[in-house]
Design a protein that fits this description.
single chain; alpha+beta; two-stranded antiparallel ribbon; 6 helices; 5 strands
Length: 163
Amino acid sequence: MKKSYDSDSRKKLYEKVLRIIGSRTPLGKDCGVLCDCACCKGSDTDGMRLFPGETTTLRTVEAEGGTLAVCDGTCDREQRPLACRLFPLFPLTDERGHVTAGLDARAIKLCPLAEFSDEVAFDPGFVRAVRRAGRVLARDPECREYMVQVTEDIDMTARLYGR
């Protein structure tokens, strides 16, 4: 029987995941200097989608597929949503709950690390942390379902980009 997560349990789950990610970044340093923090300049149609039950101090808007956190580039880095901390990777998840850390192809149009991912040496600690965080998230049936859905979106985008 799968554990059902109430808001307190999910809050603890997210706290654990945030500890796993910690201060790790894709390159082991602030990659925003490469692109002038392009991923931190969302609009009402291209913010970062929140995970199920996730809360944020950022402005949010309802969009197709869920709630988006929208940033103007001035957020407190310690308060960033999970999607921001994982970007440009994502815990790719199949229907059985198997998790790998992989490139979020939806980032290709925005992030130089994603666009040139074949030439980028992502920090191995960051990649491991994304995979481990995904495995913890997959314990929550709603998060796992969300990750499977996002993985399908990412796969479709990758096919469009020929990746």
